[in-house]
Amino acid sequence: AAFGMNARNQLGVQTLMFEKSSYTLKTISGGRLEELYPHEGLWPALLSAYGIANRIAANEVPRDGAVAVSGQALRNLSAAELDDLLRNRFVLLDGEAVETLLDLGRGGLLGMRGARWHAPESGFQAYEQIVNGQTYAGLAEARMVAQIFSGMHLEIEYDRQPEAFSMVMNPEGRPVSVGMATVNGNVFILPYGRFDGGIGGHQALYNPIRKAVIQEVLAKWAAAAGGRLPAMITSHAPHLSVYEFDTIRRGRVFALVNASLDPIGVWALRAHDLSAERWLAFSRAHPDGKRVGARREGDDFVFEEEIPALSALLLVPQTEKTGGDAA
Questions:
Q1: What is the pLDDT, as a whole number, of residue 126?
Q2: Which residues contact residue 12 at a Cβ distance below 8 angstroms, ignoring those fewer than 6 apart?
Q3: What are the C-alpha distances in Å from 115 to residues 72, 158, 235, 252?
Q4: What is the mean pLDDT of the chain?
Q5: Three-state SS at 151
Q6: Apex CA 317: angle with CA 309 and CA 278, to 5°?
Q7: Rounded distance, CA 135 to CA 107, Å?
Q8: Which residues, given as ranges, of the chain have pLDDT below 70?
């Protein structure tokens, strides 16, 4: 409360969630109560683990910025809202969101004519491989598991070729489906969904390669379209989440949460139009704040301030507006 941080002034990628989605979604068989559970919470989990600032857009359609959609959330939008979203925002879609779009008859907006699901042990997919010639997480032609713990894979039929970052390969090493891709320059596709637990869970999606790809596409969108870049942890720091707030009392505040079981000693932060020479860090060990330093490396600020396991730290860049003294 002393910092004035709340959901209304939180910034980042906005995930669509609707409290009445159980009334609008379509079930597969209608035979299980669990089919009425919305699957709209994938992106907050992934983005937080990837170190990308995000917020929940509850019962609303954001008018600007980057938007993430999973499950069948798109069924809550009018045709005009759906068209505007896909044409005028940067959008992240998972496989179930793509399936929903096709079922609504709007796949043509993204050059899609159909799709089919493949179960984890179907024999169709084995792994996913980067094919755009770029290096991610220090790996060239990096590979990611696509067979288990990635949910079901959605094989999408495109009318026009998307910008593919990766291809899904079969056990013989032949490409059989487009993996991660962007369409129309503003829609990113992560073609997995229907996460049913066990080997059908989504644990394998917590991957530094996918983190690097998604951070890259968000940065390119922000640079090209003049959008607001979400705050990001750009260093290799698994499960170090960052949340950004634009507060009245403190100005910009970054909340960093180390959800891992290991302390993180060095980490890098990147954010929209960020410039500061001094920083204040607040934590359980320093409730009144302490001054910390950071070195600039390109667009990143690199900190050597340890964040213990399962703990949080509030970081305040010091400007003329916020002042330079601890609370």
A1: 97
A2: 47, 52, 53, 54, 55, 230, 231, 243, 244
A3: 15, 9, 35, 43
A4: 94
A5: coil
A6: 100
A7: 31
A8: 1, 320-327
